[in-house]
Amino acid sequence: MMSLRLSMPKRAIASGRVSMMCLQAYGSTRFAAPTPTAVAPASISSRTSCALYACHTNLDSAPEGMSQMLGNLLGLRNVILLEPTATEMPGSGFGIVGEPEHVLPTEEFLRTVRDRLSLKCIRYSGITRPTVRRAALCTGAGASMMSAAKRAGADVYLSADFKYNDFLDADRELVIADIGHFESEYCAIDLIYEIIRKKMPTFAL
Fold first, then answer.
1. Which of 116, 136, 159, 197 has CB 3.0 to 4.6 Å from 149, enough for a Cys bridge?
2. What is the Cα–Cα distance from 129 to 99, expressed in whole angstroms?
3. pTM to 2 decimals?
């Protein structure tokens, strides 16, 4: 029988700016979602004689792309792009910023993110903003867009692959939370499924 335990260690990592929110599942695997297998897509394509469409990373910046999908899963409203791109395609860009369904205490907001995305663990900086009225996010490795999240007035910024100095650079202007690279992009499966379903309704998925 699997036992679950919620732990929120307050012990600092190095300077004390990084905390952890973990849901430890004894006897479970690392990810709630299936772990990606290390098989090269090109080799699969050559063996099966099927076409291969690689949409990474253009799917990140496409209109209604991955960040928008993740925002939908988290219930963000009044969403705008965090960093629009200068292209002829309206609505393209990286990251989004929006408002949660309700103003929440920051730790409760992070628990909501953890539960909705079935995460085991979130790394986050010090809780310097007591509530979340505005949240920014970027799927994948989005540390380079932390300044954009600050300019957008976000209380919390969700992304992945933050380094030690990134947690320091957050300062007291916002809370940054690392939800995991793979975990933040797992929504791509549902996104691509919906595109295929709408474009080819008779195609068996």
1. 136
2. 15
3. 0.75
